Design the sequence.
């Protein structure tokens, strides 16, 4: 396979890093996006380069994806470095949980900006490139919470549900240009995000998983690799739940 390029947002750790490593191991060049200069991005770069096969190259690109100008500049830099973009994985996301009665406007706005506005910013920046190439894949990481809701997460659930509507609409807009647009809805995956949950909450979630194991970031990475592959070329506007049937 010639080295197609994939941008993965929020890839310094967790699910994003697993997605980046999974693509690198399948011979894709990786534009590894990170936000915080806290050292995790260096370890991520090293891990992703170690996983890379078939001459795939990996580079770091700093941008806060909630900011449109930073997304635009990053996409230009990726094209300058790699010459094109085959796939975008919108993975960056945060939680700022709390019951609505106690949720501040800042908590609500921050989650919408990081989780939803980022998907608009990045999709808007890559769409002209993919349209010109008449090919491409846009994959966004939503959540089972965006489908079923969850007490204490009105902001997060709203952002993730909106990604599903965004995906279906964009798929209809750009399907004729050979671009597919899909979402993945993870269930309970072991990362820093879920590590913050209390033991009781973790146990309650675990008890609802039909497959009787907590998901691994690689479970999501495998689904993303499939959706980006030629095998998935007739799949668009879909939300693929990867959740061990937590959502039933
Ligand atoms: P994580 O371990 O907390 O990692 C999230 C990454 O996103 C961090 O590297 C973070 O960087 C980055 N990020 C956040 N906001 C950003 C921004 N504005 N610009 C650039 N990067 C940004 O979380 P995770 O569990 O891997 O989650 C990844 C995605 O999966 C999220 O969209 C999450 O909502 C979704 N998801 C996770 C689960 C789960 O069980 N873990 C379930 C369903 C869905 P900083 O360090 O700079 O903040």
Sequence:
């Amino acid at each position: 396979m010639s080295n197609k390029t994939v941008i993965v947002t929020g890839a310094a750790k967790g699910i994003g890093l697993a997605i980046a490593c999974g693509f690198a191991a399948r011979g894709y060049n990786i534009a590894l996006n990170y936000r915080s200069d806290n050292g995790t991005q260096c370890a991520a770069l090293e891990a992703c380069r170690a996983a890379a096969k078939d001459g795939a190259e990996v580079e770091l690109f700093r941008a806060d994806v909630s900011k449109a100008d930073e997304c635009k500049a990053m996409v230009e830099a990726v094209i300058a470095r790699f010459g094109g973009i085959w796939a975008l994985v919108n993975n960056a996301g945060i939680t700022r949980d709390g019951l609505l009665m106690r949720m501040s406007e800042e908590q609500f706005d921050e989650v919408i900006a990081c989780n939803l506005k980022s998907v608009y910013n990045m999709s808007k920046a890559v769409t002209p490139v993919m349209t010109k190439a008449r090919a491409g894949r846009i994959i966004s990481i939503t959540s089972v919470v965006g489908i079923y809701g969850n007490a204490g997460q009105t902001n997060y659930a709203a952002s993730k549900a909106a990604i599903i509507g965004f995906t279906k609409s964009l798929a209809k807009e750009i399907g004729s240009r050979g671009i597919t647009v899909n979402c993945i809805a993870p269930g309970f995956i072991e990362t820093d995000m879920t590590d913050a949950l209390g033991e009781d909450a973790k146990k309650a979630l675990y008890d609802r998983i039909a497959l009787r194991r907590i998901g691994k970031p690689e479970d999501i990475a495998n689904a993303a690799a499939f959706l980006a592959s030629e095998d998935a070329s007739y799949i668009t506007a879909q939300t693929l739940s990867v959740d061990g049937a937590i959502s039933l």
Observations:
- The beta strands are 5-8, 29-34, 58-62, 87-90, 136-141, 179-186, 239-242.
- The chain is about 50% helix and 15% strand.
